[in-house]
Design brief:
The complex is a heterodimer of chains A (112) and B (112). Chain A is mainly beta. Chain A contains no helices and eleven strands. Helix content of chain B is 0%, strand content 52%. Chain B starts with a strand and ends with a strand. The chains are: A mainly beta (112), B mainly beta (112).
């Protein structure tokens, strides 16, 4: 079982705050790192797939960075809105397999 | 974009019974993966099917089995249900084995 850790476990911010989460994963045998957003009672939504060390991806107010050498990725949300409230999952795919190995997620609550 | 559906939404079974969960993949996606999410955990990889053949398997016993059909539908079968099988079961489809996986909303299985 591959060890994928996410921190913090949960986060409560005010509307307009910027926030960031961390995902750590094995630094060897890396193939890809995925970020998903999962709102309650909905399907997990793919945000980013990152494959190269130093990758930076952006989608609206959300961005992510990747460091494969040290085994971590950051997800940033600028100017959080209540609709950003969700669980954010990262998943590591190793070079020798097809499975997504998920962390436990970071639960974000944004209040007006 | 998502278009993955799962049925049923919820299911209650008793220990020792058998259950079949269904998934309809996005059209054109040759790969389907199944995950189990127990309470407080991230999703755990069960197995993946590519063009109707099992392509990879996680740490789950043989009583977890699957089928994939040419019409982009698939099934997860679990025999001899145990209390610990109570979880959310997610399916995800993708163009190929390592492409972005698009998730359905899941089936909540409760084993009494």
């Amino acid at each position: 079982i591959l060890n994928v850790e996410q921190s913090p476990q949960s986060l409560h911010v005010q509307e307009g705050d910027s926030t960031n989460f961390t995902c750590s994963f094995p630094s060897s045998n890396f193939y890809a790192l995925h970020w998903y957003r999962w709102e309650t009672a909905k399907s997990p939504e793919a945000l980013f797939v990152m494959t190269l060390n130093g990758d930076e991806k952006k989608k609206g107010r959300i961005s992510a960075t990747l460091n494969t050498k040290e085994g971590y990725s950051y997800l940033y949300i600028k100017g959080s809105q209540p609709e950003d409230s969700a669980t954010y999952l990262c998943a590591f795919m190793e070079n020798s397999g097809y499975a997504l190995n998920f962390g436990k997620g970071t639960s974000l609550l944004v209040t007006p | 974009e998502t278009g993955v559906t799962q049925s049923p939404t919820h299911l209650i079974k008793t220990r020792g019974q058998q259950v079949t969960l269904r998934c309809s993949s996005q059209s054109g996606h040759n790969t389907v993966s199944w995950y189990q999410q127990a309470l407080g955990q991230g999703p755990q990889f069960i197995f993946q099917y590519y063009r109707e053949e099992e392509n990879g398997r996680g740490n789950f016993p043989p009583r977890f089995s699957g089928l994939q059909f040419p019409n982009y539908s698939s099934e997860l079968n679990v025999n001899a249900l145990e209390l610990d099988d109570s979880a959310l079961y997610l399916c995800a489809s993708s163009l190929d084995s390592r492409d972005t996986q698009y998730f359905g909303p899941g089936t909540r299985l409760t084993v009494l």
